[in-house]
Amino acid sequence: MFTPPLVIATLVAATLGAALGSVMTRLATRLAVNRLRAELADAVRQLTHDSLTGLYNRTGLRTIHTAVVASGDPQPIVVILIDLDLFKEANDTYGHDAGDELLRAAADRIGQLAALVGGHAARLSGDEFAAIIPLGQHRPASLAELFTSVIAEPVKIPTDNGPVTVTITASLGVAITSSTELLEGVALRRADMAMYHAKQRGGNQHVLHQPGMTMPGRRPRRGPRLRDRRRNSSGNAD
Predict the structure, then answer these.
(1) Which Gene3D superfamilies does the protein's record reference (predicted)?
(2) Which terminus of the chain, N or C, has fewer Cβ atoms within 10 Å?
C-alpha cells in the first residue's frame, strides 16, 4: 500500500516533535535541578563562611570540627586562636574600608597557611581568627611561630590619602587537645586563655596553654565590635 508523502511527512514531524519535546523537558528539568543545587550550595556557604574574608565563620568551624570527630579514631589537634594586635588603632587611623582590607589580607595569610599544614581557618569575630590543625608531625611552637611571622609581614592597603604600608602583628594562644574534646567549651577556651597571656606580654608572640592556666588579670573585651554586630545582622561573620 502506497503511503502519500504528506502522511509520511506528518508522521515524521510528529515523531520528531515528540522526541524533541522529551529532550527539552529533560533539559529543562536538568537545568532546574542544577539551579536548585547551586542555590543550596550558596545558602550553605553563606551559613558557614564569613562574607568579608571568605574564611569559615564560627558555624563553619564547628562543622569542620564535627567532620574531624566523625572521620575516624580520636586524634590530637592543635587549636590556635589569633587576635590581631592594635588593629583598632589602624582601623581608626585609616578608616573602616582600610580596616576591612587589613582583615582580608590577614585572613588570606591565615587561611593559606592553615591549608598548607593540613588544617582549616576561620574568622570568629572582629579581628579574631582561629585555626584547627591535625598535630601529626607538627611542633605546635613551630606552627605558632610560622603564623606569627607570616601575619607580621607588611601589607599595602588603600586609604583616602593613597596606599600605605602597614604592619599588623598578632597574639596567638595555642592549645593541644583531642579531636573528641568540645571545640568551644574546651579547645577554644584553652587557646583563648593562652592568647590573652600572649597579649598581656606585649603581643606579636604565642603562648602555649598549660594545665591550670587561668585568664590573666582583668578580662579584656570579648565578642565582635559594633560594626561587626551590624554586619552580622546582614549575614556576615557568625
Answers:
(1) 3.30.70.270
(2) N
Share of the chain above pLDDT 90, in %: 66
Q: Which residues pair with 78 in a beta bridge?
A: 133, 176
Cα(224)–Cα(70) distance, integer angstroms: 30
Which pLDDT band holds residue 101 (cuts at 50, 70, 90)? very high
Give residue 238's pLDDT. 53
Mean pLDDT, the chain, whole residue set: 85
Can you tell me the distance from the alpha carbon of 123 to that of 108, in angstroms, rounded to the nearest whole number? 11
Cell of 24: 527539552
Do residues 119 and 132 lie in contact, with contact meaning Cβ atoms separated by under 8 Å? yes
What average pLDDT score do residues 83-98 get?
93
Average pLDDT of the segment spanning 160-169: 92
